[in-house]
Structures are given as structure tokens and as C-alpha cells.
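Pasting two entries for a bug report.
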Amino acid sequence: MSNPQRARKWRRIVVLGATVIFPGLTFAIGSVASQVNGMARISYILAGVATSSAATYLALRIKRKSNSAQLVEFGEKLCAIMEHLAWLAENPEEADERKGRIRDKAVTLLATHVGPDARCAFYALEESGECFHRRGSSGNMQAAEVYAVGQPHGDELLYITRRKKVISIQDNRRANGNPTFNLGDDYRTAIVAPVFAGDEAKGVLILDAPKVDDLSDVHESLVRMFANILAVTQAAGGHSNRNGTIGEQKGSSSSSSPQSGETPSRNG
């Protein structure tokens, strides 16, 4: 099996070499062409055109190879997560540790795939419905580990959960009535997705980045896929508290709202 790290290293070397060699060749050929006449000049001009075309072709070829290698690397890491999920399905009695691994790998893969400055976190809605607890994160952040329902940030997460759809926050400074939740440090843009297993709410997946346009190319289906992975993870090996609903105290008799996924005492 190919080594993605080694392949990336060789691509960088080739790009660096091509950046120096091809412009140098083109300049040298142009210098010689200016000193000759007739067919010799035409030959050198054609050689310069060929050199420039080769540089363009090589750049496109390297870009295509790089994209292909990135997809392979992404697929290998995603496959590792799915293997953990398969193991979890057969060993629910040992769920907590494996669920923690899946959550950490999932949020890390999503963040690193999106960009070097992106961050990601999953906040699980506890079975009591009283708070959201961070159960997986990637990147440095100032966000709290727990957000209580009834407090501003906890209510924002609750609102996102109740919306039941992915919300793209283009600019936290110009929210236009939308949630402005991010993971701290005044990051400008974010994507938030409710995590549901069937009709049961399991939490919220949050992806953010420093600049307004950093997440503009992120497709909603990618975020939904990771939200579904986290939903399956939370549902596996757990016992839903059918009496605890979103935003209500444990023991409520209401059954119309989605349920939560994990007890406060569990650590991922």
C-alpha cells in the first residue's frame, strides 16, 4: 500500500524543482534566442514555448495527483473510523473507550480535511437534557467543556438541535438573526449540524475557521456524513433515557421532543 506521507514529500520536491528549473530554462532559451537570427531563433522560440507548456502540464498533473492522493488518504482514515464502528456494533459492553476513539478521530478528520486552520468539536446532549458536554475536539479552542441549557451558549446549541438541519454561519459578526456559535477566539465562520439517531437528539457537531470564506467550499453533505457517524456512535451501546427531553429537566413526562444520548458520568 502506498505511503501518503512519502508521496506528499516527493510531490513537494518535484514542485519545488519545477518552480526553479522551468522558469530558468525559459529565461535561458529566451536569452539565447535574442542573440541569434533566422531558423535558429525560431527553433529557440519553439523550445521556449515547449518549456512553458511542459511547466503548465506538469503543474496540472501534480495537482491531479495531489487531489487523488488526498482522497485516498481521506478514505483510509474514514475506513479506520468505520472499522471502529463495526467493532462497536459487536462489542457494546465495551463501548465507552471505543466511542471516545471514534469521536476524536471523526472530528479530527473533518477539521484536517477542511483546512489547516479549521477546528471541530462534538457536544453531546446529556440524557437529562440539562447540558451539552464536549465529547471530542480537534484544534486549540477556548470553548467551555460543558454548556448548560438555560445559559446563552447552551440555549444556542439547543436551538441548533431543534432546527434539525445544518446551519452555515457565514460571518459571526453579521449573523442576521442566525446563531453565532463558534469554538472561541473570535473565529469568523462556522458550520453547525444537529446530531440525531432516528428521532433522538445526540448533540451538535461544530466546525469553525478564522476567516469568513474559509468554509465556503465545504459541502453540507460532508458535515452531515460526520454527524451521522457521531449519531451511530452515540447510539451504540448506550441506553436512551426516554424520560429526558431536549431542554427539559429529567423526569419530564413529555415524549414529543427528541431524546439525548449519553449520561454525564461517561467520559469519551
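Entry 2 (this is the one that rendered wrong in the viewer):
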Amino acid sequence: MRAVRRQVAVAALAVCGVLALTACQNGDDLAAPDAKPTAAASAPPTAGATVAVPAPSTTGAAPKPSATATPAAKNPPAPAPPPAPTCGADHRMPISPDTIAVHRYTPEGGMTTLIVQHGTYGCPGRFEPSGAWTYIPIAETAKITATAPILGPSTVMGKPISTSELTGWLDTHPDKGLPFRYHLNAAGVIDTLDEIYVK
């Protein structure tokens, strides 16, 4: 009889232990949905933290970016180069003090007078006459050098000519506006005149 009671008591204790263990496990499962996420799991990534990027799929589709990932900074477009300067009045040098374009001449007043025009050097380096035509007397003994086209197309270096040779060429070639460097003597008369070679 005592042996039977012992077996019943042991069996009862075993059943209670199993019930208690099951109740504890079920309690843990019930508490899990109400558990709050840890700070490490819920905190957003800080500045400078690396963000995991999913590996590309085997189907060839690009992985979707993470919601917390920021787009890569794009380089701003390079500025357009400034336009090249165009030749013209805006790029001319100041009026040349010793260069004139010779158009014609006149013998009036008993002295040879050149009809000329002052001007500037443009950005190609060529003399560009501008402004009003003026009159400058030239001495009969002035030292004059000439190049092409007065002395032919192949003449590059200046060669001496007389005042009468210059006026003779101007008679047959008026208004050509060939550039010359000149010098005035104390009386305001041209005593030196050198043609500037232009291709």
C-alpha cells in the first residue's frame, strides 16, 4: 500500500513539473511580441556609418537601395570654356602715333601733301585705318622705303624710293591705304616714310 502511494505521488510530481515547464515556455512566447526592440536595433545609422548594400540577385535585376542610404553626390557639370575673342573695334589697340594709311596726294600749294588716315592695329596685327582723312606735307628729299606692292609682289625688305616714285605709284593706284611709319621734322613735314610690309 505504501509503495502504491509513493508511485502515485512521484507520478503527480512529474506531471506538475511538466506542466510548470510548459507554462514557463508559453509565458516566454507570449511576452515576445510585447518586447521592445533594443536601442541598437532601432537607432538610425549615424553620419559616416556604412550602410549595407544588398548583393546583386542572380536574375540580373539591380538590388533595391536601402531606405536609409543616401544617393551618391553627383559632380557638377564643368563650366563651358569662354568664347574666343573676335577681332574688331573692341579688341583694337589705341590710335598709333606713328603709322598712317596713305591714300592719295595733292601738289596744291607748291608742296606735295599726302592724303592719309590714322588708325589702329587690330588683333591680327594688321593696321586698320579709321577716322577722317587728313593732309600731311612730305619733303621732296624725304627718306622713303617701299615694299610690295609698290615694288612688286616678291619685295619683302624695304628699298629706297624717291618722293616722285611714290606719288607716281599713287597716281595709278589711288585709295589703296598702304600702311607707312612716318616721322615729322620740326616744321611738321614728313622727312622719313617707311612702308610696312603686309602679305
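Dev reply: Rendering is fixed now. As a check, the viewer should reflect this: The first strand starts at residue 99 and ends at 106.
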